[in-house]
Amino acid sequence: MSFFPNVKQVQYEGVNSKNKYAFRHYNPDEIILGKTMKAHLRFAVAYWHTMTQDGSDPFGDAINIRDWQADSPMEVAKKRVDAFFEILEKLDVDYFCFHDVDIAPQGDSLEEFFQNVDTITDLIKEKMDQTGKKLLWNTANMFSHPHFTNGAGSTNNAEVYAIAAAQVKKGIDISKKLNGANYVFWGGREGYESLLNTDMKFEQENIARLFKMSVAYAEKIGYKPQFLIEPKPKEPSKHQYDFDAATTMAFIQKYHLENDFKLNLEANHATLAGHTFEHELNVARVYEALGSIDANQGDLLLGWDTDEFPTNIYDTTLTMYELLENGGIAPGGINFDAKVRRSSFEMEDLLLAHIAGMDTYARGLKAAARLKSDGFFNQLKAERYQSFKSDLGKSILADKESLDSLAEYAMKHDTVNLESGHLEYVKSLLNDYLV
């Protein structure tokens, strides 16, 4: 059975194509800076938004038309596997990501849930063997179930902490079973509502303890994916402990996790934190901790996590420039943690939305490659910091100066000639690279 009988294999047809089921910019075989576009981009499809999101919102019921409905939750889960791999095949996307609860119903107990997960991951593994598709990362949903009301690793209840540990253990087992490249922790409720009854130090120490247990278990079973933490500033907790890249890196370094953990960064989460996505990516690069990204975009007019498919070329260009400067994103990738709009409710919209996102990132890659080849940003920065190539600047950078010596210099040279950055002109030049 085909879930998308009216859509053939999506292929590159160029900018003049009128076929809405074709790529106009994403040409997987095109060579960019010595690598194929496909190798640069390492696209992944997110199971949760693609397969389980039903179009409902706080003001409206489910609207999405989905042809994998069945008489029981497990039958639905099995049909979703077939539909999901058809999407991967028709888009020619190599990677995918999922939470444990995305793929299998939770049932009435943890034991039943894990049995369901085993059944569905057996089917997923069969599909992977048949198609060559790969698991970019998986994770445990430790925020939806009522027992995670007060967090998972940060919970105030030791029994809940044990349940969280069990789900992480199972998640790492799944990662080994499916040869996952990465394993993600997203602290959906790792935060607090009020400091009046919260011991922040205690909770963060317990989160770190869970992370260290996870590393130890992975080493014990002889399989260690790249561990990733995904920052988010708010929603659902009022204050999340992993607020942004810098906050998360402070946590990683405080608890000596830097040898095992990097960051999985999401564009919409950057917006909620009051940052640009390129800011978050740059912070991660400074710490040598850029692991993987979730590709989406937020709506600046709305104050929540809208998870729109990325269609802003300006943003994807600056994103891809950071990835190029990082030397690539492997073993991470570009995961479409994005959902179709409520008005895009037909089955084919799942393909059309991914095509739009892939084309937008392809355009961003090409523009970023031009910027890198021309040394656009390097030249700007070299000019801006040129005073540090003077004798004084070189001496500062060589750590040969002190407050005494610099104060003595300043007393004799207190007239400074500042130069304009011409930022508006710079932005105008940047626009030339986008088209």
TrEMBL record:
Record's cofactor remark: Binds 2 magnesium ions per subunit.
The record's keywords, sorted A to Z, are: Carbohydrate metabolism, Cytoplasm, Isomerase, Magnesium, Metal-binding, Xylose metabolism
| Primary residence | cytoplasm
Cofactor(s) needed: Mg(2+)
Binding, Mg(2+) 1: 230, 266, 294, 337
Q: Provide the binding site for Mg(2+) 2.
A: 266, 269, 305, 307
Provide the reaction this enzyme catalyses: alpha-D-xylose = alpha-D-xylulofuranose
Q: Where in the cell is it found?
A: Cytoplasm
Q: EC number(s) for this protein?
A: 5.3.1.5
Molecular function, one GO term: xylose isomerase activity
Catalytic site residues?
A: 99, 102
Q: Which NCBIfam families match?
A: PRK05474.1 (NF003998), xylose_isom_A (TIGR02630)
Q: Which family does it belong to?
A: Belongs to the xylose isomerase family.
Assembly and partners are described as: Homotetramer.
Instruction: Please identify the protein, giving its name as recorded.
Output: Xylose isomerase
Q: Please name the taxonomic classification of the source.
A: Bacteria, Bacillati, Bacillota, Bacilli, Lactobacillales
Gene name of the record? xylA
